[in-house]
Each structure stands twice: as C-alpha cells, then as structure tokens.
Amino acid sequence: MTGQPPSGGDADLIRIYRETIRPLYAYVSRRVGGHAALAEDLVQETWMRAVAAWPARGVPDQPLAWLIRVAHNTMVSHFRRVKLEAHQVDATAIDLEGPSFSPDTADTAAIVGWGLSRLRRAHADVLEAFYFDGKSARAMADERGTSERAIEGRLARARAKLKKVLNRIVRPPAERGRVATRGPEHA
Predict the structure, then answer these.
(1) What's 10-81's CATH class?
(2) Are 113 and 30 in contact (CB under 8 A)?
(3) pTM here?
(4) Is the pLDDT of residue 8 over 60?
(5) In the chain, where does the domain assigned CATH 1.10.10.10 lie?
(6) What angle separates helix 148-170 from helix 137-144, to the nearest 10 degrees?
(7) Which of 100, 132, 172, 186 is deepest in the core (most CB within 10 A)?
(8) What pLDDT shows up at residue 24?
C-alpha cells in the first residue's frame, strides 16, 4: 500500500475501476463457471471493500493484485457458506484426472470452488492455478522456482485431497455416516 489516499479522490477511483473491472470480472467469472449473477455479486462486494478501505489506507501499489486477493477471499467465504447436497453433484462431471475435465460450467465450478474452500491454501492455490488459470506444471514450476516434477507431485496430492472432500457429498448418505461437510480439510 502506498499509505496515501488517492490523490485525485473519486477521479482516481473511477480510473482504477475502469482499468481493473474487466480483468477482475474475468478472474471471478472463470472461478464460478460463468455464473454471471454470482460473478457480479462477488465483484461488487470486492469493490465495496476497496471503496471502504482505500480512502483511509491509500490505494495499493498494485490495485488489481489487491482486488484479486480480496475477490479470492470473498469467493472462499461464499463457498464455505454454501452447503452442497449429493443430489446437486454429478459425479461424472468431477473426474479430476480426466483429460477433458474442466470446471467451466457453473455447476462444476461451484462444486470445485466448494471443495477448494475446504482445502489448505497451498493445495487450493495449485489446483486453482491449474484448473482456473490454465497454467501448466512447467509454468507453475517456473513461477515458484521449483521443478516441474515437484509441481506434479503437489498437483497429485492436492487432487487427492479435493477428491476426498468431494467424495463426502457424492457418496449416498448411508455411506457418508457422520462425516461433516463443513470446515477446512486438513487431512
């Protein structure tokens, strides 16, 4: 953060809004499978937080990065509040290792988003980069300064954690027993 209020006041906020709204909306929209109303609500909530914070704290040096982090946290909060039922989940749509799997529909993105909100951040971040940002293991390795093999291992472990979380809602209720569907997955 710069620590200084925007120098041009409302004019600066409007300029930043115009520069960031499309990439911010695209970021959110991908993660909610193109569900327009949900994407608009989440982007609006993100911008409301910016309008509340920036006049007092100052505009961050990288407003889009700040907005994306807040949008990410807003989506995680949203998906943690959502309760999915087994009848809402199409198990065939969530073959995480399938070559054609993509969370590009609203339903599939909601299921994956719900699952990611229950994982540790390290697991969720690598899956989000892979599924929603379309990053390859090589690109993630380059960004993180590690080997492609290390990223592939992280992806495999993160997929296994996500499958475990998703299986809790996909299995028939009699098989689920007393497994809770709330709270982060730390196993």
Answers:
(1) mainly alpha
(2) no
(3) 0.77
(4) no
(5) 91-176
(6) 120
(7) 132
(8) 98
